[in-house]
Amino acid sequence: MLLNNKEHLNVSEYVDLNLELRNLDLEEKKKLIWPVSKSVDALMNFWNSEPVRSRQGYNDKSECSQLCLGQLCPALYTIMSDGLKPHLGSTFGPIANSVWQVVEASSQQGPLTKTLNDLVQKINGEDFITEGMLKFHAFVFGLLNLRALDAWFAYLCTRESILRKHYNDSSVLTRGRPDEPRPPLPRYPLIE
User: Fold this and answer.
1) Is 48 helix (H, G, I), strand (E, B) or coil?
2) Residues 6+ apart with CB under 8 A from 85
3) pLDDT digits (tens, 9 = 90+) for 118-149
4) What is the pTM of this model?
5) In whole angstroms, what separates CA 15 from the centre of its chain?
6) Phi and psi at residue 80, in whole multiples of 5°?
7) Each residue of 24-82: pLDDT tens digit?
8) Helix locations, the chain, DSSP H
9) Which of 39, 94, 108, 155 could cross-link 71 (Cys pair, CB 3.0–4.6 Å)?
């Protein structure tokens, strides 16, 4: 139901169109979350199946690492990339935005973020980890080792200023917030 300048919407058509668009958007966001859930289930099945050490030919580092690298990290990176603004404004003009910049912003030195800051500084100090996605994967592994991945995501979701700065309103990280302001209805010149 595309409109040209001569067509008008009545209020009920507008509400129906708006709900339809929100439902489509919600379905797209669910598709982003599903791989995370699937990878977490795979990791939980791995650790909750027969005793890990008794498995035939078991290499604990290899199998678990492959589940994390092949499933969990890409799924989390996709969520972190959703709705990411391509550029950030600065006094020197626009600068490229990235998932790694979100990680760095969330770990700025403070009383609650010392461990996060130490982890980010350690990753930034490694000469062989130069790409943002590799840094993010290393960060996820570090958080898993610290048993703090869920706590970091929960913390990130409370950092409204970081989310507003780095993400569009359509991001999965900003859309799911209960305090998210609803956009006002647009004003059409002739609503019947």
Assistant:
1) helix
2) 97, 166, 167, 168
3) 999 999 999 888 888 999 999 999 998 898 99
4) 0.72
5) 29
6) -65, -25
7) 567 787 788 888 888 888 878 877 776 655 555 555 557 777 888 888 899 999 999 99
8) 11-48, 60-67, 73-81, 99-106, 114-124, 132-145, 149-158, 160-166, 172-175
9) 39
Amino acid at 56: Q
Distance separating alpha carbons of residues 152 and 149, to the nearest angstrom? 5
CA distances from 10 to 5, 57, 142, 187 (A): 14, 67, 54, 11
Beta carbons of 113 and 94 less than 8 angstroms apart: no
Q: What is the pLDDT of residues 91-118, one digit of tens each?
A: 999 999 999 999 999 998 777 788 899 9
Contact 56, 35 (CB under 8 A): no
Q: Can you tell me which residue has the tokens 């570090």?
A: 142
Element (H, E) at 95: strand 95-96
Give the domains, in start order, of the chain with CATH numbers.
11-51+58-84+94-174 (1.20.58.900)
Contact 82, 32 (CB under 8 A): yes
- CA–CA dist 157, 178 (Å, integer): 11
DSSP 86: S
Q: Which tokens belong to 31? A: 């598709």
Run of H or E residues at 88: strand 87-88
Structure tokens at 70: 């092949």
